[in-house]
Each structure stands twice: as C-alpha cells, then as structure tokens.
Amino acid sequence: MMMLSFAVLLSLPLLVLSVTVPASDLQRRALAFADPAKGGGSQLDDAGNGLGEPLNVIISGLSSPKVLTDDGILNWARSVNFSTECLGIHLGAPQQANLGDGNGAVNQTLEIRQDFGNANLGTCLESLEGGNHFRYWRQNGTMANTGALFLAVSQEENVAESHTIAPNGYDVGRLVAAATASQTSFGGVNYSTTNQTITGLLPVGSQGVNHGIALDGNVVLLTITIV
Length: 227
Ligand SMILES: *[C@@H]1O[C@H](CO)[C@@H](O)[C@H](O)[C@H]1NC(C)=O
Ligand SMILES: *[C@@H]1O[C@H](CO)[C@@H](O)[C@H](O)[C@H]1NC(C)=O
Ligand SMILES: *[C@@H]1O[C@H](CO)[C@@H](O)[C@H](O)[C@H]1NC(C)=O
Ligand SMILES: *[C@@H]1O[C@H](CO)[C@@H](O)[C@H](O)[C@H]1NC(C)=O
Ligand SMILES: CC(=O)N[C@H]1CO[C@H](CO)[C@@H](O)[C@@H]1O
Description:
Keywords: Signal. The protein is built from 5 helices and 8 strands, in the order H-H-E-H-E-E-H-E-E-H-E-E-E. The chain is an alpha+beta fold. The termini are far apart.
C-alpha cells in the first residue's frame, strides 16, 4: 500500500515531464518516413481528375530539423537550382495527397511568400520555361508524425504550352544529381545530401498516372544535413 502510493507520487513529475517534451520532436528523429499505404494513403497524389502524380522524392524526417520547415526546404531547393519562386502559383489548382498519417487528403503546402508581390509575377512566369518544380506535403499527422516531406517533382514545358509535364517530366535525376554531386549552399547555409532509392512505394507503369507518363517505380529518399 505504502509502496503503491509512493509509485503514484513518483509518476506525477514524470507525467509532467513527458508533457513538456514535444512528442513530435521525439518521433521526428525516430523515422525517415512512413509508407503512406500502411495508413490508407498513397504515394500518388490526386490531380483532381481521377489520376495522380507520383510523390517521387521524400525528404527524410531524419534530415536536419531546420530543413523540414517551409523556409528550410525552399532554401535547400534554391541551393540545387530548383525553381521555387512560383511555387503554388504556376501549377494551377492545388493537388491533394493522403500520406497515411491520419490527416486524410490535404492540399499541397502552398508557399506563396509574403514577399511575392504582383510586381514580380512577370519574372516569376519567365522563370517557368522548362523549369523543374515541385509540390510538397508534410507527413505530420498523429498516425505518422515523421516530419518527412513528400515531393512531386516534375519538369514542365513552356508555360505557353499550358503547363504540360515534359515527357521525361517525372525524371528526378537532375534533382538528385545536383543535390548529391557535392555540398550545396544557399543563403549562407551549407547542405550535405545523401540519396537512396526506394522501390515498392510507387507503381511501375502508367496506370492511374496523370498524363499517362510511365513510372519506373522508384522513389528517391534524400537525407539533407546542414553542415
Ligand atoms: C546552380 O547554378 C549555378 C549557376 O549556374 C552553378 O554555378 C551551380 O553549380 C549550380 N548548382 C548545382 C547544385 O547544380
Ligand atoms: C484546397 O484547395 C481547394 C482549391 O483551391 C480549396 O477550395 C480548398 O478550400 C482547399 N482546402 C483547404 C483545406 O485548404
Ligand atoms: C502539418 O503540416 C501542415 C502543412 O505544412 C501545416 O499546415 C500544419 O500546421 C502542420 N501540423 C502540425 C500539427 O504541425
Ligand atoms: C559553407 O561552406 C563554405 C565553403 O566551404 C565556407 O566558407 C562557409 O564558412 C560555410 N558556411 C557555414 C555557415 O558553415
Ligand atoms: C541509390 C542512388 O540513387 N544513388 C545515387 C546517389 O547519387 C549519386 C550521385 O549523383 C549517384 O551516383 C548514385 O547513383
């Protein structure tokens, strides 16, 4: 009896402690990502027409925490020369994805920055010609709070050709090559990036894929470390 109440007393400060440690931070360090399918989600997003585009790049939840923020991933993208200025604007209607984390289908993270004014729109559209772009989602629902970012990377043809994805548009080779070729740097932040190919998350072939572009089924997992 005596020992029991002692144990109860002891557990009180422990409970308080566990509340003050953010669970999301603990989990974020534990997992690179969680397979969306395991939580009822999909590695294909929903383009709104019954078809989907592949989430062909995952930024590991084991990356430096700062990289996994909205500002952080954009800064990193700039370090590998990816167009980010027009993110959320040039791609038309937002697409949705269900990362199987309990959040259900959610719109892509829109990153229309405060400093992006209409005055810059011309420049923004100019930069779209043949550019590489990505939409992204954050796996942060309570069922799988890994903090990983799921990117749909594509290369678009000239805007004048109504935003079609280039035939090789789902080839993420350029991104991976730029990211891992050497240390990259932007805005005074240096990054070291490692890559790993993951199979089994995406289907192989073109069934269900937007624009009928065949996939090789590969997803690239990037772990980005601020050095
Ligand atoms: C980005 O572009 C600049 C200027 O063209 C080039 O010097 C740099 O090597 C490129 N970086 C990567 C990672 O491709
Ligand atoms: C998702 O995007 C659609 C289309 O722009 C918009 O109508 C809807 O309100 C958005 N949903 C959320 C939860 O922001
Ligand atoms: C999860 O990520 C979304 C999109 O980036 C963000 O709007 C939301 O605030 C995040 N939720 C939590 C609990 O951090
Ligand atoms: C980034 O790398 C450059 C070149 O190696 C170095 O001069 C600079 O000090 C580094 N910056 C930071 C913030 O570590
Ligand atoms: C597994 C994988 O895709 N590895 C690639 C990582 O990046 C280097 C440098 O671009 C490639 O040589 C590897 O093939």
